[in-house]
UniProtKB/TrEMBL annotation:
It comes from the Bacteria. Heterotrimer of A, B and C subunits. Its EC number is 6.3.5.-. This is Aspartyl/glutamyl-tRNA(Asn/Gln) amidotransferase subunit B.
């Protein structure tokens, strides 16, 4: 692998959870429903049916673009992407080509690397093919319930060189769309589908192009391989690693890998060829004649920004600065929006009751608090109760200490020999004898004094 550097770009499709589909009023809540029950003449592509764009879906698409630091052109349009496949009833897909809603964004990874976002555009989802065996015969069935569901495609620049960066980017993207509450991004249900484009760049500076000029290390390879419709971060890693190995072997033999679309085989962790990769011209894009161009004003875009929540990276930094939390605690508590909101609500409740943000964070993380079962105010009361120390009968305490020391003579001896940590073991044994919370520091002093007095005898 030292002879080649991976060049990886990502295309991610995110289904939006609007109530209706992208261009009709059919319900978009199709998962698990009886096949072909969420359809109408528009999403079935019947003659004469006209599409009407879903305003909420377009707003959410733009909000995803804004969260990825994209520019939002004030003029955009829909286009027809023409291709023939059984799950595409119209024979074309309404998508966007040269004037997408969002362009030229970026997202920063934890290592400081910036990943360019080429475009974020809106399109409609296709139907779903189901391959089954009926009465001994293999058949393909089509369910059009998914056809026409709003689908956002996020396309990066080929800025990745490792699967670690790919995984972090995908996790960040999933986190962002969940924070925006525009998609559940549940990959098992197909809400978020991943398609890496992989090629290898030679590290050999003697490599030349067709004009006999040295190829720059930044020059893109003359081919790329796309792996379609992967539904887990783990499988993306496996697909990329398999392709790196496969393509490096081809390049070592002096050949160039085919530019093609491949599928991922979960059982073997390999990829298989599906078809030669299409160019944009193959799709014969042209402006969608039934939907006029869309124009925005700067004020409209600013209004959408005001509707957006605080995003994960900003929240993480604020948790560290405002509440004095560690990096680890801030990452855990900001990972999911509902958990972050629960934490801040508990902090607000505990503010006037002497409960610190750090105590609340420790309780949520270490005790694995079920935030669906306890109100934030109940959590605060629980922390206060567990923090209260009760007065203990001195005679009873003295008896228990003597009992523990007599039963743990080895620990006492270890302490005498200089193993100071032995006192903590003895402390633990004493504390176990009490069901209520008592002053551990006071007990430690009493044990130490008693052991030291034994030393003097």
């Amino acid at each position: 692998m030292n002879n080649y550097t991976p060049v990886i770009g990502l295309e991610v499709h995110v289904e939006l959870k609007t109530k209706s589909k992208m261009f009709c009023s059919c319900s978009s809540d199709y998962f698990g429903k009886k096949p072909n029950t969420h359809t109408c003449p528009v999403c079935l592509g019947l003659p004469g049916a006209l599409p009407v764009p879903n305003k909420k879906a377009i707003q959410w698409c733009i909000m995803i673009g804004l969260s990825l630091n994209c520019n939002i052109p004030l003029l955009s349009k829909f286009d027809r992407k023409n291709y023939f496949y059984p799950d595409l009833p119209k024979g074309y897909q309404i998508s966007q080509y040269d004037m997408p809603f969002c362009i030229n964004g970026k997202i920063e990874l934890s290592n400081g690397k910036k990943i360019g976002i080429r475009r974020v555009h809106m399109e409609e989802d296709t139907g779903k093919l189901i391959h089954e065996t009926i009465e001994g015969e293999k058949v393909s069935l089509i369910d059009f319930n998914r056809s026409g569901v709003p689908l956002v495609e996020i396309v990066t620049e080929p800025d990745f060189e490792s699967t670690e960066d790919v995984k972090e980017y995908l996790q960040k993207l999933q986190q962002i769309v969940r924070y925006l509450k525009v998609s559940d991004a549940n990959m098992e249900k197909g809400d978020m589908r991943l398609e890496p484009n992989i090629s290898l760049r030679s590290n050999n500076t003697n490599t030349t192009n067709t004009n006999n000029k040295p190829i720059s290390n930044k020059e893109l390879p003359k081919y790329k391989v796309e792996v379609k419709n992967i539904n887990s971060f783990k499988f993306v890693e496996k697909a990329i690693n398999f392709e790196i190995e496969r393509q490096s072997e081809i390049l070592k033999n002096g050949q160039t890998p085919k530019q093609e679309t491949r599928g991922f085989v979960e059982k073997s962790g390999s990829t298989v060829s599906q078809r030669s990769k299409e160019e944009a011209s193959d799709y014969r894009y042209f402006p969608e004649p039934d939907i006029p161009p869309l124009r925005w004003t700067k004020n409209y875009i600013e209004g959408l920004k005001l509707e957006m929540p605080e995003l994960p990276d900003k929240k993480l930094k604020r948790f560290k600065s405002e509440y004095g939390l560690s990096e680890y605690d801030s990452i855990i508590l900001s990972r999911e929006k509902n958990l972050a909101e629960y934490f801040e609500s508990a902090v607000n409740d505990g503010k006037n009751q002497g409960v610190s943000p750090k105590q609340i964070a420790n309780h949520i993380i270490n005790k694995k608090t079920d935030i669906d079962s306890y109100l934030p105010s109940e959590l605060v009361r629980s922390i206060i109760k567990s923090s209260k120390k009760v007065d203990v009968d001195e005679k009873k305490l003295d008896e228990i200490i003597n009992k523990v020391l007599s039963e743990n003579k080895k620990a006492v001896l270890d302490y005498k020999k200089g193993k100071k940590t032995a006192i903590m073991y003895l402390l633990g044994q004493v504390m176990r004898e009490f069901s209520e919370k008592i002053d551990a520091q006071k007990v430690k002093i009493l044990i130490t004094n008693k052991v030291n007095s034994y030393e003097q005898n």
